[in-house]
From TrEMBL, chain A:
The protein's name: ABC transporter substrate binding protein
Claim: Signal is one of the keywords in the record: yes
Cytoplasm is among the record's keywords: no
Swiss-Prot/TrEMBL keywords: Signal
Gene source species: Alicycliphilus denitrificans (strain DSM 14773 / CIP 107495 / K601)
Signal sequence extent: 1-25
Automatic annotation (TrEMBL), chain B:
Protein name in UniProt: ABC-type transporter, integral membrane subunit
One Pfam family matching this protein: BPD_transp_2
GO cellular component term of the entry, any: plasma membrane
Subcellular location: Cell membrane
Keyword terms of this UniProt record: Cell membrane, Membrane, Transmembrane, Transmembrane helix
Principal location class: membrane
Native source organism of the sequence: Alicycliphilus denitrificans (strain DSM 14773 / CIP 107495 / K601)
GO MF terms, alphabetically ordered: transmembrane transporter activity
Length: 322, 295, 264
């Protein structure tokens, strides 16, 4: 049998790993992971870090802070989960459903705080919205859909058919679609879906809705958010009003959004982590919904998409984008 | 690196070694570039997860997932053999189709398995922590799979499959129905990948529509790294090589995750992994060069 | 026995590169006969041989092996009754497999391949014994990859493989063409011995008029997809290469203009 050449390789890799420094005993350590890098998810992470700093925990001084992105790969997310659990941090923050699931599956003891997960109960992270009595709690970005549809009615008062472009492969979006299917008939409206499995499909999905819908509503679907400009183009060309769920999209061309500021969501998450660092058990902390919602409007976009916004709506907005 | 991280790498490496064995059969033995695995890996996960979450016995669920993988491989083979579609293209078609099939099976993009009974909770001994027991169970599964493959490819039928990949024209002249052999080989290959998907879902918290992306790359990397560590054409050593390659590859990723102290950041993970794998491929060449210079 | 009746094969019909390779090709080879087939380039020799083996399908006509109509059967179904040695030894063996594995493949030709071990202990002794008759020392290299052997050695093993199972017919497709004269001679002698020992019905396509007359009992010459000369017995024994040429000119009314055929 030919000689194995993994011996020098193994030695090299082990040496690298062994050289990693050991954490100090008094330091608190927080390990953060997200499934992918993305403006909203990055804002959450920054918010967590800011909240920790405000409570006196600063990286480099009394806090060991580490962040790993799974680069969109579930196998990598699993290995990150293992690594974090092995490092025995005081808390793990898992941003987005796939990362949260990987971490929760990897440990029943290390405190886990999830963030930006739309439906943590359906994702089996927690059994219900009460304190879980397990090692898991967190902050959800679930939007109250009835308020979302109120906004849609305010922007397009006679809307009957609501179109939605979304990635059928993204758990958060599928949850919203299912809820809208139940909700809209009660409001006398119908839902028309258009699937965009990849961000390049957003444009054609939007075009398939032309003539079939009175307004297009979107949630914080990763594909849609990353390709929002192509949605705006269709909205302007075909005069279909666009209502989004995140405030950044209003700057990019949506008429209005009653959205969660993801930086605020991150800070809310961070405050939960602080409670755990101070000794509270995650199982005693109730999972939270986002507390701060902001209304952004864009009258210029409204005009381009064939809609006139009421003055009352514009006055009530937190920010009016020119 | 913590023991947890190390055992995590071994655990995931063992799961992907089943993928590597499957890719070895299609890619090396049959000379069939098979992208179906990007679809049959999540197919196995989906079938297993949905069955377990609706109350089915995990043994049956895992078996069903393996069978589903086999069917996917059969279909790819059928597209190629019967409809005469080029092998790579046939596998891409299946991969694309399986995306929708998997969404249907799961009823959504994701089926979580957090507190459900899995193969691993059933086999969990009292005295050993779960992060040690899981790699042990997987080790037994991988050993059984490897030994079964080694035996099969030394049988008449197994040799016929190898001949089909090595020289189909000659194989036919020896009375081998090469079309049937391609179907059989593809079925076995994707059955292994489906099994891997089922085991992944049971150990990593569920199945997700995106879990298949890049499976072929991981499989090929494992095969290639394995072959550079343990070069041999003999089946017994070749199968060992791809298993070792899969574990070493995941180990490199774990090492890359732990290299933040040299100033590398999260975004650099893929780059670091690529560098480590390149080192793995180059070291045998260097050894040969140094060896011949001394002589 | 091998039987071909009125075979027609046209490649790329209806295009500028249309080639009518076989135009009514008929040949009957009774059991146990050794026939050599010659013809210039494009005469249809290889096409004819591939039609019999099943690698190429015929447009019209009938092919029968041992009385069984195999016109529509695929290669692997015919393989039980007819074995073949390719011109290119690479094409005739599996490079990645060992010598004993290659022989096992040939040994199982015509049987239902199941889950028994492919290379069996008892048969290994037989392979060794057969290989030793070649005098090349290969009997000690059973577990070497066949890709390590030279072309001539592989060709010799291919011949052995062709005779392992009692398939009653043998097709040889210019199987000495790519070898140097000494190796070609060795392979040819081996061929004659094997055919005689196993009483195989044999059809040997060759590019060399010399070879065609030196081995076998009957020589058939093809031209433009048809049989134009068919000599055997007494008449053939008296012939030499120039005589063959004269016969050709008489039949076709034209001179044969293929240098390789004349000089080979």
């Amino acid at each position: 049998m030919k000689s194995l050449s993994w011996a020098p390789l193994g030695a090299f890799a082990l040496a690298m790993a062994a050289l990693a420094p050991v954490a100090h005993a008094q330091q608190k350590s927080v390990a953060v992971t997200a499934i992918v890098e993305h403006p909203a998810l990055d804002s959450v992470r920054d918010g967590v870090q800011a909240a920790l700093k405000e409570a006196g925990y600063e990286s480099g001084k009394n806090l060991k802070w580490q962040y790993q992105s799974a680069q969109g790969n579930t196998g990598t997310a699993a290995q990150i989960a293992r690594k974090f659990v092995g490092d025995k941090p005081d808390a793990i923050v898992a941003i987005a459903t796939p990362s949260a699931q990987a971490v929760v599956a990897a440990t029943k003891t290390v405190p886990v705080v999830f963030s930006a997960v739309t439906d943590p109960v359906a994702a089996k992270l927690v059994p219900n919205w009460e304190p879980s009595k397990t090692n898991v709690t967190g902050v959800s970005d679930l939007l109250a859909l009835d308020k979302q549809m109120d906004l849609v009615k305010q922007v397009v008062p006679n809307a009957k058919r609501v179109g939605m472009v979304y990635n059928p492969g993204e758990a958060n979006s599928v949850v919203v679609v299912k809820e809208l299917e139940k909700l809209l008939p009660k409001l006398g409206m119908t839902l028309v879906e258009a699937a965009a499995p990849r961000s390049v499909d957003v444009s054609s999905a939007a075009r398939s809705l032309i003539g079939k819908v009175d307004v297009i509503y979107t949630n914080t679907d990763n594909n849609v958010v990353s390709a929002y400009e192509s949605l705006v183009k269709v909205g302007q060309d075909a005069k279909i009003p666009l209502v989004a769920s995140d405030t950044d999209s209003v700057k990019r061309g949506a008429i209005a959004a009653l959205g969660i500021n993801y930086r605020d969501l991150g800070e809310q998450t961070g405050r939960m982590v602080v409670r755990i660092l101070k000794g509270e058990k995650p199982g005693d902390i109730r999972p939270e919904l986002s507390t701060k919602m902001e209304l952004f409007v864009n009258p210029g976009a409204a005009e381009k998409q064939g809609v006139k916004l009421s003055d009352a709506l514009i006055k009530s907005a937190a920010q009016v984008v020119q | 690196m913590s023991l947890f991280s190390l055992l995590g790498a071994v655990e995931i490496g063992l799961i992907f070694s089943l993928v590597a064995l499957g890719v070895y059969i299609s890619f090396r033995l049959l000379r069939f570039p098979d992208l179906t695995v990007d679809g049959s890996f999540p197919l196995g996960g989906a079938v297993c997860a949905i069955l377990i979450s609706t109350g089915t016995n995990p043994w049956l669920a895992t078996l069903a997932a393996t069978a589903a993988g086999a069917v996917a491989g059969l279909l790819t083979g059928w597209l190629n053999v019967r409809l005469k579609i080029m092998d790579l293209l046939a596998s891409i078609l299946m991969m694309i189709a399986l995306y929708s099939v998997n969404l249907r099976i799961m009823g959504g993009p994701n089926v979580p398995l957090i507190n459900d009974t899995t193969l691993f909770t059933l086999l969990q001994p009292e005295s050993i922590p779960d992060y040690v027991a899981r790699p042990m169970v997987l080790f037994v599964i991988v050993v059984l799979a490897k030994v079964a493959l080694d035996w099969f490819f030394a049988t008449e039928r197994g040799l016929a499959i190898r001949a089909t990949g090595s020289n189909a024209r000659m194989a036919r002249a020896q009375g081998i129905n090469t079309g049937a052999m391609v179907l059989l080989g593809m079925a076995i290959s994707n059955a292994l990948v489906g099994l891997a998907g089922a085991l992944f879902a049971q150990t990593q918290g569920g199945s997700d529509i995106s879990m298949g992306i890049g499976t072929i790359v991981i499989g090929l990397a494992a095969v290639i790294v394995g072959e550079s560590i343990l070069p041999s054409r003999r089946i017994v050593y070749a199968t060992l090589a791809v298993v070792v390659g899969a574990i070493v590859y995941r180990f490199f990723i774990a090492a890359a995750l732990n290299s933040d102290f040299i100033g590398l950041k999260a975004q650099d993970l893929n780059l670091v992994t690529a560098v480590l794998v390149t080192v793995a491929l180059v070291i045998p060449q260097l050894k040969r060069k140094l060896g011949s210079r001394k002589a | 026995m091998l039987s071909a009746q009125d075979l027609f094969i046209t490649f790329n019909p209806g295009t500028p590169i249309e080639t009518r390779a076989l135009r009514g090709m008929s040949l009957e080879i009774p059991a146990g006969q050794f026939v050599t087939v010659i013809g210039s380039n494009g005469a249809g020799k290889s096409t004819f041989l591939n039609a019999i083996s099943g690698d190429i399908g015929v447009d019209t006509g009938r092919i029968a092996i041992d009385g069984l109509d195999v016109t529509r059967s695929p290669v692997w179904e015919r393989a039980e009754r007819v074995s073949r040695v390719f011109q290119d030894p690479m094409a005739g063996t599996c490079e990645d497999l060992t010598i004993e594995e290659n022989m096992a493949l040939a040994q199982q030709r015509g049987t239902r391949r199941g889950l028994r071990g492919a290379v069996k202990q008892a048969e290994r002794a037989m392979y060794r014994e057969r290989l030793s008759t070649l005098g090349l020392g290969l009997e000690n290299r059973l577990t070497d990859r066949i890709g390590l052997l030279s072309g001539g050695q592989r060709q010799a093993v291919s011949l052995l493989m062709a005779a392992l199972q009692p398939s009653r017919s043998l097709l040889l497709d210019e199987h000495t063409a790519a070898r140097d004269p000494r190796t070609a001679d060795f392979v040819l002698q081996l061929t004659a011995r094997i055919v005689q020992e196993n009483k195989l019905t044999t059809m040997m396509v060759t590019h060399s008029m010399r070879q065609a007359l030196d081995v076998g009992e009957r020589t058939v010459m093809l031209h433009q997809g048809q049989v134009v000369l068919d000599v055997s017995g007494e008449e053939r024994a008296r012939l030499d290469v120039p005589d063959l040429l004269k016969m050709f000119e008489k039949v076709r009314g034209e001179k044969l203009a293929d240098d390789a055929l004349l000089l080979g």
